[in-house]
Amino acid sequence: MGSLGDVLQGPVSPGPNLDREKQLLDEFLINNAKRYDFSYHGAGVDYARVFTLLVKERFLSPANWERLSQSECRLRVLQCMRVLMRDEVHRNSFVEMGAVGTLISLCIELAKEHFAQPGTNFTCEMLVETLSILKRFAALPELGLCASDAPNLADDLYRTLCILLATREALVLQCVLVAMYQFVQVKDHMVGLGAGPSCAETLLRILTDYEPQFKKLSAELLVLLLESPRFFAEVVAQDGVSVLLSLVHSDDAQLPVPLLAALHCLAKESACAKQVRQLGGINVLLSVLGVNSQYSTPP
Questions:
Q1: What top-level branch of life does the organism fall under (predicted)?
Q2: Other CB atoms closer than 10 Å to residue 138's CB: what's the count?
Q3: Are residues 119 and 26 in the same domain?
Q4: In the predicted model, what is the mean pLDDT of residues 119-137?
Q5: Which of 25, 130, 158, 176 sits at 20 to 30 Å (Cα–Cα) from 122?
Q6: 258: in domain
Q7: In angstroms, rounded to a whole number, what is the distance separating the alpha carbons of residues 231 and 191?
Q8: Residue 189 lies in a domain
């Protein structure tokens, strides 16, 4: 590992040196693919050094990061950082180095590239890695540790995540849904995401049209986002009660539970509760429970 540390300590230079750096990063990923303990004791000191150099001399260095732009080394840097940040010590170090704001800015930039040039594998891979790292910092309230010169960065991230729900790349969508699920555990993030563009509409479309693995994640995310008044109103406006009722009888045994939870949230509002009754929702719910009964819908 010392060799990788020595290479990272120097500036990025094209040619054989860059090829050597990529080779060492590849070896690092292979050797540590299943490692979760990056202790600072013993050989762990090398891990700490490599992580610090990856962040400071590559990720946070505008000049070096730019020189990596036409190279897979940029992707490898993100992958190595992700692996090392399985360790809480390294995650804390990442925050202390002020790198969260840079990570968010990169995510926003990659999302724009993703929609401008759909189907570009390299951009998709970069986006997947960025989202996989970013979700680990969802517990930071208001993302207050972002760069002070970019006060709107958190709002920009919320908009970006909501827009990314419309991606046609399966792995990107999976990562977006998981990242958003982590973020909505914090109230400030939940409110911000709930106000995102077309968030309710897109989640309902995923529930209706997409593969089962995406439907479950979307349903669980929708339940949490319903705590946001703006998102709640948007779900109602998108005929969400009808959509959810139509999906309760699902072949996927895991889907009815979050759907019922979402309907429960909606039914707390009297107009939605009335709509559930008018649409025959009582009979639908009874049938899910295995009750052979007919409830007469009032006029």
A1: Eukaryota
A2: 17
A3: no
A4: 94
A5: 158
A6: yes
A7: 8
A8: no
**Beta carbons of 226 and 235 less than 8 angstroms apart:** yes
56 close to 50: Cβ distance less than 8 angstroms: no
Return left, alpha or beta for 73; rule: phi > 0 is left, psi -120 to 50 is alpha, else beta: alpha
Cα–Cα distance measured from residue 243 to residue 238, given in angstroms and rounded to the nearest whole number: 9
pLDDT value at position 149?
52
Pair (152, 207) in one structural domain? no
pLDDT at 294 over 90: no
Q: Do residues 73 and 122 both lie within one domain?
A: no
Q: Is the pLDDT reported for residue 1 higher than 50? A: no
Task: For residue 292, give both structure tokens.
Answer: 């052979």
CA end-to-end distance (rounded Å), the chain: 74
Q: Tell me whether residue 188 is in a domain.
A: no
Tell me, yes or no, whether 6 and 93 share the same domain: yes
| Dist CA 221 CA 180 (whole Å) | 7
Count of domains observed in the chain: 3
Pairwise pLDDT comparison (78 vs 213), residue with the higher score: 78
Round to whole Å and give the CA distance between 135 and 128: 11
- Regarding whether 93 and 108 lie in a shared domain, the answer is no
**Could you identify the residue written with the tokens 């004791």?**
41
Residue carrying the six token digits 């990923």: 29
Q: For residue 187, is it within any domain?
A: no
Domain that holds residue 138: 100-179
Q: Summarize pLDDT for 139-161 with one digit per residue, the tens.
A: 886 565 455 556 688 899 999 99
Residue 44 has pLDDT above 70, yes or no: no
